[in-house]
Amino acid sequence: MTRRTSASRAPASPPPRECASGRAAAVDDELARLYPGARCSLVHDGPFQLLVATVLSAQTTDRRVNALTPALFARHPDAAALAGADPEALEEELRPLGMQRTRARRLIALGAALVDSCGGAVPASRDELVALPGVGRKTANVVLGDAFGVPAITVDTHVGRLARRLGWTSAKDPLAVERDIAALWEPRRWTDGCHRLIEHGRAVCRARAPRCERCALAEKGLCPRVGV
Q: Side-chain half-sphere of 204: how many Cα atoms within 13 Å?
């Protein structure tokens, strides 16, 4: 019987986390090829506009927010103007989005907090952002990533759904999903990678009827199609 030497042995398998990280990176590389222009879909000019638009996007679509914000920002171009807005007039401006009273109250409080606590400027730290009225971790991550260039993972419904289908997480809690993605992706992928996941979720990997037959990730064996 011929004895195997160490040189002829099959290489040891990499640790599971290393394998998963490699697959997750390959997914992002493929999505970068498919969606090279993926970016934040909320139209904005600077941190203030992005913060307001993101706060408004809760429970509505980015498209509806984008249709309303040009006129809104023309009337309320900064935090001081927003803080001093007439509540009833602002409600009318926000009526197309629904829940206009709540939204108006939230924006006026946000403007006042920016003026009182931040000198009218949008802060570039997560702790300061989430301390503002109506700003949660998801909104803070959007602003950090897209306005300030700070790597941040934004877990919306698309990102959460795709992360589970790709086998990156089994969690439903957005913070847990964020942590699981962060363990797989280098920070340089975080912000734009989430935009690419969102684009793929809208175009191909839909919630009720995923188009697996049109999916480049499935074709290349990068998606285990968990739950499909």
A: 19
Indicate if 138 belongs to the active site. Answer: yes
Reported as a single tens digit per residue, the pLDDT across 172-205 is: 999 999 999 999 999 999 999 999 999 999 999 9
Residue 129: CB partners within 8 Å, gap ≥ 6? 51, 122, 123, 135, 139, 140, 143, 144
Alpha-carbon dihedral sign for residues 155, 134, 97, 94: negative
Contact of 65 with 112, CB cutoff 8 Å: no
24, 189, 46, 49 alpha-carbon torsion, rounded to 10°: 20
Catalytic residue among 138, 146, 180, 192: 138
Sequence letter at residue 119 = G
Active site annotation includes 156: yes
